[in-house]
Design brief:
about 450 residues, Ubiquitin-like (UB roll), Rossmann fold, 6-stranded mixed β-sheet, 4-stranded antiparallel β-sheet, 13 helices, binds iron/sulfur cluster
């Protein structure tokens, strides 16, 4: 149900059923350590990693097992103590084959030894970037872009505002909500580190109005912290998308094809800010994360702290297993998540949730002809013409698809959500983008 407010927002977007109540009251608990973890060597946007271990090697929790000299990359670390069983190709959550390190977990799992005594006030901005790189931090809202790269904007683009995306605007997901309730003070420390890394005077935590308890907690934690504030946003999808969030909070418009640094902003997800705090204060690499296991097809929806590389099936079993006739398994939320054929894929750094829909909860309309209602145009937060992108893609008129905005589509799915003709606009937009990119290369 839509929640009408006077809170900050953007034009366009949709109000899908949020279904957050299934898991939002469930405190974060530790998931079991699986018998073996499957850790993809590259879990980020950028250059692939080289494997740094061999079969038979003993590894410890937090040990680096994959890395690259390339700047746009993010190292991967072992999430368990154990023995490397093999290095092999697996089908990743996108369906593409990826190289992964399989590690057999040791019977005893020692706690990660937290480094003590770090003086976060004394740490320099350069050091924060190094810490982010060493810890293999990436955007944990799903994009998985290496954090240290974002923290190094072009020299001519001064950043004055760090924005924390704590909207969690995807239906069903509640892990960021729980992090704010349970780790608000650490989150604010992470915001301060991000501000220091880019020299920003202002840090704004943007939270949707359906999480007022989190607003209270983070406001309390930010009291007396110069420049750190909390803003309440309207409950609307995709409020947490970078360009929408920047506009809602600052009134600045990121030009098409440009990055947030163009308007002096840096956007990071709440989970990433917290992971940065843990890396700086404890020396902890990103080898585990909080995610939500939820949906009508899960017996006990909850929020779990799980090891990267844990198979989805282990987490589903821990939550009591499937309920009813499983209809669809999605890694992430229903709007931008990745449908899975089965529960064998491992969770990765960018996995914010596992959603299980029952067969009766899925609206399986068959694609029909466009009825020219214009709903997709009204819903598009990028002010594109989704209906035209579809038509031109069908006709393979790539120049016209580009003129209709195909390259600016960030695949939020608002257009498909409102379309009475069940047109899968995102699939068409993806096809158009791939064809336009291929044409440019020729
Ligand atoms: S065209 Fe792209 S950006 Fe616009 S609503 Fe559709 S998916 Fe979102
Ligand atoms: S919402 Fe669907 S039916 Fe309506 S104009 Fe857009 S594509 Fe056509």
């Amino acid at each position: 149900m839509a929640i009408k407010t006077d809170h900050k927002t953007f034009k366009g977007g949709v109000h899908p059923p949020y279904n957050k109540e299934m898991a939002s009251s469930q405190p974060i608990k530790a998931a079991p350590v699986p018998a073996e973890v499957i850790i993809p060597l590259s879990q980020h946007i950028g250059a692939p990693n080289e494997v740094l271990v061999s079969p038979g090697d003993k590894v410890t929790v937090g040990q680096k097992i994959g890395g690259s000299e390339a700047f746009v990359s993010a190292a991967v670390h072992s999430s368990v103590a154990g023995t490397v069983k093999s290095i092999t190709e697996i089908t990743g959550f996108t369906g593409a084959m990826v190289k992964a390190v399989i590690i057999e977990s040791a019977p005893e799992q020692p706690e990660f030894e937290k480094k003590a005594g770090a003086d976060l006030d004394a740490v320099t901005g350069d050091r924060v970037r190094e810490i982010a790189r060493e810890a293999g931090l990436v955007g944990m809202g799903g994009a998985a872009f290496p954090t240290h790269v974002k923290l190094a904007p072009p020299q001519d683009k001064a950043i004055d505002t760090v924005i924390i995306n704590a909207c969690e605007c995807e239906p069903f997901l509640t892990c960021d909500h729980r992090l704010m309730l349970e780790r608000a003070s650490d989150l604010v420390s992470g915001v301060k580190l991000l501000m220091k890394a880019v020299g920003a005077k202002s840090g704004i935590v943007g939270i949707e109005a359906n999480k007022m308890d989190a607003v209270d907690e983070v406001r309390k934690a930010a009291e007396g912290e110069p420049g750190v504030s909390v803003e309440v946003l309207e409950v609307k999808y995709p409020e947490g998308a970078e360009k929408m969030l920047i506009y809602a909070l600052t009134g600045r418009k990121v030009p098409p094809g440009k990055l947030p640094s163009e308007v002096s902003c840096l956007v990071q997800n709440a989970g990433t800010a917290l992971a940065l705090y843990e890396a700086a204060a404890w020396g902890k690499p990103l080898y585990e994360r909080v995610l939500t296991i939820t949906g009508p097809g899960i017996k006990q929806p909850c929020n779990l702290l799980a090891k990267i590389g844990t198979p989805i099936s282990t987490l589903v079993d821990f939550c009591g297993g499937f309920r009813g006739e499983a209809g669809k398994l999605i890694l992430g939320g229903p709007m931008t998540g990745w449908a899975q054929k089965d529960a064998s894929a491992p969770i990765v750094k960018g996995t914010s949730g596992v959603l299980v829909l029952t067969a009766d909860a899925i609206d399986v309309g068959i694609e029909q002809e466009c009825v020219r209602c214009g709903k997709c145009v009204d819903a598009c937060p990028m002010f594109l013409l989704p209906n035209f992108i579809v038509q031109y893609t069908k006709r393979e008129e790539w120049d016209k698809a580009e003129m209709s905005g195909a390259l600016d589509c960030f695949e939020c799915g608002c257009c498909s959500f409102v379309c009475p003709a069940y047109i899968p606009h995102v699939s068409y937009a993806r096809e158009a983008k791939a064809e336009i990119a291929a044409l440019r290369k020729r």
